[in-house]
Amino acid sequence: MKLAPSILSADFANLQRDVQVVEQAGADLLHVDIMDGHFVPNLTFGPGMVAALRPITSLPLDVHLMVADPQAWITPFATAGADTLLIHVEATAHIFHAVQLIKAAGVKAGVVVNPGTPLSQLEELLPILDQVLIMTVNPGFGGQPFLPAMAEKVARLVTVRKQLGLHFEIEVDGGVNDHTIATVAKAGADIAVAGSYVFNGAPAHQLETLRAFAK
Ligand code: DX5
Ligand code: ZN
Fold first, then answer.
1. Is 175 annotated as a binding residue?
2. Residue 33 bears catalytic tag
3. Which of 17, 124, 146, 192 is the most buried (most CB within 10 A)?
4. What ipTM was predicted for this assembly?
5. CB atoms within 10 A of CB 115
6. pTM as predicted
7. Where, in this chain's numbering, is substrate bound (predicted)?
């Protein structure tokens, strides 16, 4: 399984150091949580953060847009250097068009589902997606407990992907730690985001532990 540390829980005053530590520790992606204070009740950073990260790491930047108007932000984040743009199915009435815009911008396209959103909402989108992100907490904050029922949702999506002969990657985000990673690995997730677990300890050690428990 690929591991994607979320910089939401990094030390913002020492961000370059923290990014380099997780890169050297073998992280596969860098997850960047964009929150606008409307779609979720928290506020983080904008395209300038992605532009600042781009020259200091060779990790792919996995940009999770928790914003109320995702279409408006596709070009700014793609231009800033995002490798994947993940947008919430709940955030727009024009999700298909938004995915088309992401692909037209030349970056990978992912769609995110909140815990209460059924997989059926993705049905028409799956063939054009590179990634599906299943939220394993309600979005907005790091450090929340993993919702165990979401593991079954991951397993169901693995089955659907196989039935349809598709190859999008399945990602989980929220509450991933040494106790919960085995559950999502077993369910078939390809990518696990982890914020507080990675950065509230020595990141290299934490990533090594996650990798060990994901087997
Ligand atoms: C939550 C964010 C997550 C967050 C995960 O809304 O999307 O990416 O950083 O944090 P942890 O791993 O602490 O649950
Ligand atoms: Zn996220």
1. yes
2. yes
3. 192
4. 0.99
5. 15
6. 0.98
7. 6, 64, 140-143, 173-175, 195-196
